[in-house]
Design a protein that fits this description.
The protein is of the alpha+beta class and 631 residues long. The chain has 2 domains: 1-50 and 89-236, Phosphoenolpyruvate Carboxykinase, domain 1; 240-326 and 411-625, Alpha-Beta Complex (Phosphoenolpyruvate Carboxykinase, domain 3), CATH 3.90.228.
Length: 631
């Protein structure tokens, strides 16, 4: 431990005195420098195939949190409690006095965080600890961090080390500085928080402290670090967007780069996947949930694509060329891929190939794998007999993904995904979004302001009702002020006028179950068109102004998409009356959510856009505030 302190001191990296005290007074402390060291430690040694992560909890006795198996292709970790297999969206508490719109620790708990911080340090000092350094971001853009983890929770440290860039403390990059520390104290979930996932953020003058009182990596190792990036960006006026990014090449050599945003479950990882053909080579668009009718199309050859980002993209000012396009680079070193849509062998061949025989060990969560076996991404653990966990995950190093792009790219299209429920005659819903809609910039900003979490979200613990993920869909992870992020997002859109915007549903289009096909078909179509604008007769104002422009027709390689998938009111199960009922649901939801942004700090243009929404303005009204670009 003294060596690490000396190394950091020699690099002029200031380690707080309380951290030096914590690490030197701990029962033991091991500095990890490689991912393989954490793989071996995940089962308490390379020769062990099974390890239980357990703690003595006052009043409960010994509690096993996670069962860890060593498998041929990495480490498989399974939480014993189904609640811990998904991210709770209400995990964040703020412990400091800096500006925030998030719940304060002292208000929620009734006492100052300093008391719990001391208890946490005291508990950590009694443990065998693991410590390592990491970089959150990409190629020197981002922030430096440190993780302090109970040694028996090495699987958690492994996930963090894979998601971020683990650093060798003996060979630190010149740009490293300590700006964030993650502390992990799992038993406190039971002793202080009624078994709930809680992550406390304490923003000091120099270091963003993250106290993870649970072992699910989602709210801390991944989104907690995302919070630190957003906090730094809020101070410096740049954004880390919540999105996947993919460069696509058509059969005719047109190239387009898509940036797909949306709340959890909005189709970000799916934007990097292939379209799956039926046994006869056709493509299933959707299946009617009432009568079982299926509609297919034929596309002889798909576009090729190269992934850029899976969930987070840094839009740092140093990357921009000020040419009207937004330039982004991946904010992660590994991808936290949800595999609930992969039900059997052959569902996603490329990802299956990468994960079955990887060149590096992987981390599997909520995957049913026996010790020494090969973990298979379609073998999802059950939350209850016959009920598969909806959030199986695999952490994959980005550098082993096929054709991955490791440099900044310029975005042509920013799409936004929303999970939509089935539309039933007896139960109308907001499932009125066609295969894709074209949005003027004003509406593109408004959708990102509201960011509906949508139907049957598999990633988080939720009621299933439509709720708002908020600003850019990254608001659950931000620690500051909503209106500041709203202004930054609006400025970003205004400063990139050569970017086009689309809206696409997943799961359902009216009464048709479609999965993630809409966004993939959009990817195929717009890439083939390249930079050509749509014909004026191809689109018109949508019946619901919040949906921008709807398509009159859509043909891909000679295959026509039926109009019922473009104009949902043409479905007999929906009709104009049902569509209008769904439009009112959307309108009421938007009005409820945007009111909170009407503060004196909001940009005047943002205020004008929100006023159009609050007064049931037309599409033309949105365009008048902020001119559209239709492509």
């Amino acid at each position: 431990m003294k060596d690490l302190v000396s190394i950091l001191k020699g690099r002029n990296v200031e380690l707080p005195a309380e951290i030096i005290e914590l690490l030197t007074q701990a029962k033991s402390c091991r500095v990890f420098n490689t991912v393989q060291e954490l793989v071996d430690a995940s089962t308490n040694g390379p020769d062990n195939k099974v390890f239980d992560v357990k703690y003595n909890v006052p009043g409960k006795g010994e509690v096993t949190e996670v069962v860890v198996h060593k498998v041929k292709n990495g480490i498989a970790a399974n939480f014993t409690e189904p609640y811990m297999r998904r991210r709770d969206p209400n995990t964040m508490l703020i412990a400091d006095e800096l500006p925030t719109d998030k719940p304060l620790f002292k208000d929620k708990m009734g006492y100052e965080f300093g008391q719990l911080k001391k208890e946490t340090y005291d508990w950590l000092k009694q443990q065998d600890l693991g410590v390592f350094l990491f970089w959150a971001g990409h190629h020197g853009v981002g922030l430096g961090g440190m993780a302090i983890v109970p040694a028996n929770a090495a699987f958690f440290a492994l996930g963090l080390a894979m998601l971020q860039s683990m650093l060798d403390s003996n060979n630190l990059p010149h740009y490293y500085d300590l700006e964030s520390i993650i502390f992990v104290a799992p038993p406190f979930r039971h002793t202080h928080f009624d078994g709930k996932q809680v992550v406390v953020h304490n923003r000091t003058k120099k270091i963003h402290e993250i106290f993870s009182f649970n072992l699910y990596p989602g709210p801390s190792a991944k989104k907690g670090v995302y919070s630190a990036l957003l906090d730094k960006g809020e101070k410096e006026n740049w954004i880390t967007t919540h999105c996947s990014t993919v460069r696509v090449i058509s059969p005719y050599d047109n190239t387009m780069t898509f940036m797909h945003e949306g709340a959890s479950g909005g189709g970000k990882s799916e934007m990097l996947q292939n379209i799956v053909r039926e046994a006869d080579g056709e493509i299933l668009i959707g299946e009617n949930i009432n009568n079982g009718e299926k509609r297919f199309i034929n596309i002889p050859k798909f576009c090729k694509f190269a992934p850029v980002t899976d969930d987070m993209a840094i839009c740092h000012t140093s990357l921009q060329k000020n040419n009207g396009k937004l330039r982004v680079i991946d904010a992660e070193n590994g991808w936290f891929i949800r595999t609930d849509g992969i039900k059997q062998y052959g569902s996603e061949p490329d990802l299956e190939k990468v994960t079955i025989n990887p060149s590096k060990p992987l981390l599997f969560l909520n995957i049913d794998a026996e010790p020494g076996s090969t973990a298979l991404i379609w073998d999802h653990i059950e939350d209850a007999p016959g009920k598969a966990c909806p959030n199986p995950r695999v952490v994959v190093p980005r550098d082993i993904m096929p054709d991955v792009i490791d440099k900044p790219v310029s975005v042509d299209v920013r799409s936004f995904g929303v999970r939509t429920p089935p539309f039933l005659s007896e139960k109308p819903s907001y499932s009125i979004v066609g295969v894709f809609h074209i949005l003027p910039p004003a509406l593109a900003w408004l959708w990102r302001l509201v960011a509906p979490r949508g139907y049957a979200n598999p990633s988080i613990v939720s009621s299933g009702d439509m709720d708002s993920e908020g600003v850019g869909s990254y608001w659950p992870f931000a620690t500051g002020k909503q209106v500041h992020h709203a202004n930054m997002l609006l400025h970003q859109i205004m400063s990139t006028p050569r970017v086009s915007y689309t809206l696409t549903p997943n799961q359902h289009i009216g009464a048709w179950k479609v999965g993630f096909k809409p966004q993939l078909l959009m990817r195929e179509y717009l890439t083939r068109r390249g930079s050509l604008r749509l014909r004026e007769d191809q689109y018109q104002s949508a019946r619901c102004p919040l949906l921008g422009y709807e398509l009159n027709y859509l043909t891909i390689e000679g295959s026509k998409i039926p109009s019922r998938f473009l104009k949902v009111y043409r479905q007999p199960e929906v009709g104009e009356a049902g569509y209008d009922a769904g439009a009112k649901m959307l309108s009421d939801f938007f009005k409820r959510e945007v009111k909170k942004f009407m503060t004196p700090e909001l940009s005047p243009i943002g205020r004008d856009i929100i006023n159009v929404c609050l007064h049931d303005g037309s599409l033309e009204d949105y365009v008048a505030v902020f001119p559209a670009r239709v492509e």
